[in-house]
């Protein structure tokens, strides 16, 4: 009886309440790749066989040493210093980075799989996912790190190269898109894409080679069917070929792709299949219109996939390089995301990464955003973080944006119609701007200190003055001459300051600036001021406090 | 305790019984566990590939229900499990089945992950904590009373059945599904598994037992946990 009930219940539960959980196809591919890689490892059948193998290995090693090729063999180590044996398969989840004994660095995306000294004859082979490679410069004649991917080889130039390799696995593609994209033929080992950030490299495949320089992206290995051709349907061979004499000159197999609507491209980007996404990005880059820019930006904002996000950021940078006039459109999309992202920090982070990808092209709209009274403090902070990350070559632009942001802030305190909420918001934004100054390189601190001191001398708001002093304290790179000069400026202005709180802030600023300055360089100035204002007890009190703060007797 | 059931097949009286594989793979020629163990130990590429093929889906389900049904986390753990299994294949002694062995690796990884993300260990029995007592009671009496219709429709019931199934060895899962979901006869089951009718019956008996034992244990704990 009990068995009957159990069987009936089992049948009902399994038929109606059981949802099988199956592993995704990409995981299957990766796990099978792990098993395949094991084939490259020597087997250990028995101890005797092991000894025999060891003996042979010693002989082989000696032979290899004697007849070693000119090329050095790179050894790779994990972050903890442990060396990775040749033939080892490395998963990005377990080992996020590797370093070669020559100093080359590999950063593995969590999804990536990499083989060290694989059968491909390269130093490393990318078997899946994305890997960021930083090949260091070599002396003349020394071989660089070679990377294999999808049956092709990447050789960075001896001057060094920074690049990302992405392998779109065959198994990641659905049969429909595979057939559509490549006209029914099959991809043997997936589709590779390479993005070069600095330096250059040579990408060799059986079908040819190409050189990629900094800022260039190749979305397929040399010889792979170009995407434009992949779009076209396969040509049915229904007619005999034209006679030999009438046959036209052979041409590249590139055919005009049928134009896709924005919705179609959007669907491709959202498809979840890497090759579709890569193709959509390629099409948007070809279009290079304001609509394409907006689509790229919106896709980045909606993106949760780190590899796709990296591809979109690269595409944005390329698009701005190609069409600088699109910067304003792009920045507006990201700014809108920043402004409305209070409830979604992830979206704000993505917007920042998008702005950062735009580089200097984002500086102008960011500056305007920071100077806008209506900008929320949180969004201003995020915008400031983008400016903080701009390269040192843009120091003038950054200083100018800092100055305009602070001047706009000062106007709020001068405005008799400003509300308390406006002033409170402006104080917080001043904090972001002061923080931005401190994040810049030490070489820029002289210039930025001047900007902060100028604002400090003009503000009538005690909390804002305090924030500016805090920012000054973080400018550790201010040089001695500039410190002395700014100290002098502050000291000369101090007697005229009627607001006790602000005067106290100036004293603290003077103290911050006096760090590392020999007292004999500023003590005479204080003595001079003291004698000038000997009859004014308020000023005398300020100067006494200053002397105490600065440790002078 | 329910988790320990996965290892219960070690004590199975018919250790050499050819493992049942999911229905689509039932026609594949089967190797004995001993042979498979030797091949894995010898790092035979075909055996390692077969290890992945045979255990990927059950292992994914096993992990999935132990990492709060987080697919990304489950993928991470499963990939790392196979990576470790492939690396340490030479040390696989074959004293347990391959399933028990890789589940052991996966369990360690899941525990390590919980420690890393500083989350409390979620006992398997907590699965029912967000459901009501009626489901727990009904499922705990699976051998004695027909499960009411309304219980079958509940989302919690589906999650619970999936979780319990994931604790069973793959061949038990495959046997139960072939018999009770796909309605196959014992003869078909025996033919698919390349065994005798008697052997198939024995396997089904043990699979039913394991499934039925899991329910009251887990459901009982869940009820007790709430009281």
Which helices and strands occur, and which strands form pairs?
The complex is a heterodimer of chains A (553) and B (227).
Chain A: H1 2-16, H2 25-38, H3 47-66, E1 76-77, E2 83-84, E3 89-91, E4 97-100, E5 105-108, E6 113-116, E7 124-135, E8 147-149, E9 152-168, H4 175-182, E10 191-205, E11 208-213, E12 217-218, H5 227-231, H6 262-269, H7 274-287, H8 290-301, H9 306-322, H10 327-339, H11 345-358, H12 363-371, H13 377-388, H14 395-414, H15 420-439, H16 445-458, H17 462-473, H18 480-493, H19 500-513, H20 523-532, H21 537-549
Chain B: H1 33-41, H2 45-64, H3 71-87, H4 98-116, H5 133-140, H6 149-152, H7 155-167, H8 170-181, H9 186-192, H10 197-226
Helix pairs in contact in B: 2-3, 2-4, 2-7, 3-4, 5-10, 8-10, 9-10
Q: What features would you describe in this structure?
A:
- The complex is a heterodimer of chains A (553) and B (227).
- Chain A is of the alpha+beta class.
- Chain A is 50% helix and 13% strand.
- In chain A, helix 6 (262-269) runs antiparallel to helix 7 (274-287).
- The model of chain A is unreliable at 39-45, 170-189 and 225-258 (pLDDT under 50).
- Chain B is mainly α.
- The interface between A and B is large, with 42 and 47 residues.
